[in-house]
Amino acid sequence: MRLTEAQVTAVRNALDVEPVEEENPAMETLRNALGDHTFYLGQEGLFVFEPVPADQANGAGTPAQLILVAAWTDEERKAVQAVEPQVTNVTVDLDDAGPAAS
Description:
This protein has helices at 5-15, 27-34, and strands at residues 40-41, 45-51, 63-72, 80-93, 99-101. By secondary structure, the chain is α+β, with helices and mostly antiparallel strands.
């Protein structure tokens, strides 16, 4: 899921994280391998947000769940390798930026 500027701001306010910059030389490779997303780097690796399925949403806002899509390959965190997507317990309402654990 590619986030709008307002959604990036909502995530930034909720989680104090920054997306991988569009100018980053790795962006083309990431998009070719993983699709068109707004990517975030964290301690475990590379993350994206995906909408919470309608049947799991509480009916308020636009909830999105943080998904791990690539893990660091070493302790120096210089490279990531794609993994089977792993849903985290972090959900952000992209309308009002209120994080919640599920």
